[in-house]
Each structure stands twice: as structure tokens, then as C-alpha cells.
Amino acid sequence: MKYRSAFDIIGPVMIGPSSSHTAGAARIGRIARTLFEKQPTKAVISLYGSFAKTYKGHGTDLALVAGILDFDTFDERIPNALKIAEQLGLEVEFITEDAVMEHPNTVMINLYDEQGKELEIVGISIGGGTVEITEINSFKLKLSGGNPAILVVHHDRFGLISAVTTVLSKHQINIGHMEVSRKDKGDTAVMVIEMDHKIENGVYAELTALDGVDQVIRLVD
After folding, report:
1. Helices 24-36 and 60-68, interaxial angle, to 10°?
2. How many other CB atoms are there within 10 angstroms of residue 20's CB atom?
3. What is the DSSP code (8-state) at residue 73?
4. Which of 105, 131, 172, 221 has its CA 20 to 30 A from that of 200?
5. What pLDDT, on the 0 to 100 scale, is given for residue 128?
6. What's the CA gap between 150 and 132, in Å, rounded?
7. CA 103 to chain centre
């Protein structure tokens, strides 16, 4: 394995004790919060495999909630995340699952607010603080969370993917990874696009204004 820098070896700056169980968990929680676009009033967190067995001892519970509160991996408030969540009116429920998943460090996060908004994501912590989001609201995808990225919710119809990539090309934004998922032909679909550079507000506005696009969310900026 070839490392690009010392940071690839020692992992990210973080509150310990484990990069996969703490830093990775915080990143998954924060991606969920970004997708939800506001602080939820309730979080149901289902833990699988190693996460389910060691989440309290390794601080995974604190890290996940910290991420949902929009704390970064190095935030000194992480050890008090559960207490802070309670003070802010965020109800948290942890569920340990017996199902065997493809990766041992797997978590499903369901977020809710009082207006009926809901979000479900499935994420895995690969190690060294690296994560992957594998599912958003039943849409299968692959999002690393390490590069600038956007989620585009749109109608599944001819020409829309091309319209989105044309806007990015016009502004010389290179696509590093892209996936498209849909529930059914002609139904709602999502694009996940990871890029070499973040998009500016003007580009974001252009994408949002495209006919057939329902929502554009900046996941990593």
C-alpha cells in the first residue's frame, strides 16, 4: 500500500480511542446531519457487528451523536456529546442488531424532526477515519466522504445527468467519482458526485435551477 503523506498513516486528528470507531463514526454522523440539513429532534442509531459489540467502550456512541450535532472529529466536546444532545432536545436511541453485514463497522442512522421529516443512511467505517456511505433513503450508492461532493435528487428522465455534468464541465470542475441510483424507471433518482474541488455558490444555484432537479445538497465542502 502506498501512502500519500504521514496523515494517511497516523489517521486524522481526532478524539480517541479508535480511528474507525471514533473518527469514522463522527464522520458518518456528520454526513447524516449534512444530508438532514438541520438539527433533528430524534436519532435512532442501529449498530451492527463490531460497532454493536464495542460501541460504548470505544466511544462510538459519543462520536456518532457528536457528528449528528455537527461536531468535527477533533472537537473537544465529543466526550460530552450525549449530555449536550439532551440539553439541545435531541432524543437519541441506540439499537444493537444481530444481523451480519458485509462490513463489521456498520451503522444505520434514522433522523427525524417534529415536522415529519425523515432521513435514513447506512454507513461503514473502513479504518483510519475513512468512511463510506452505502445507502441513503433506500438508494444504494457509494460515497467516501473524503472529497467535495454533492447529492442531486432529481426525476429519472433522459438528458438530466448530462445537464448536471455539463454545468460542472462549464465551470471546469473535474468529477472524481459519480453514481446514479433510482427506485424505478421514471421515478425519483439520486446522483452522488465527488469532485476534485468544491462548487461555488453560483454553480450550486445553476444546478438547483435545472428543470427536473428537486434538491442539491453539498455533502462535503
Report:
1. 30
2. 22
3. T
4. 131
5. 72
6. 14
7. 17
Q: Please indicate whether residue 3 or residue 185 has the higher confidence score (pLDDT).
A: 185
The string of pLDDT tens digits covering residues 143-159 is: 876 788 899 999 999 99
* Ramachandran angles phi, psi of 153, nearest 5°: -95, 125
Per-residue pLDDT band at 187 (split at 50, 70, 90) = confident
- Find the length of the chain: 221
More confident residue, 149 or 99: 149
State the DSSP string of 134-190.
EEETTEEEEE-SSS-EEEEEEE--TTHHHHHHHHHHHTTPPEEEEEEEESSTTSEEE
| Strand (E) or helix (H) holding 210 | none
Residues 6+ apart with CB under 8 A from 28: 64, 67, 107, 109, 121, 123, 125, 131, 133, 145
E strand or H helix at 17: none
Burial 34-49 (b: 16+ CB within 10 A, else e): bbbeebbeebbbbbbb
Return the C-alpha cell found at 147: 472529497
pTM: 0.79
Regarding beta strands 188-195 and 130-136, do their DSSP bridges make them parallel or antiparallel, or are they unpaired? unpaired
Nearest to 109 by CA among 58, 72, 55: 55
Extract the C-alpha cell encoding 140: 444504494
Write the CB contacts of 116 (distance below 8 Å, at least 6 apart in sequence).
Answer: none
d(Cα 58, Cα 118) in Å, to the nearest integer? 28
Go through 126-161 and write b for each residue having 16 or more CB atoms within 10 A of its CB, e for each that does not.
eebbbbbbbbbeebebebbbebbbbbbbbebeeebb
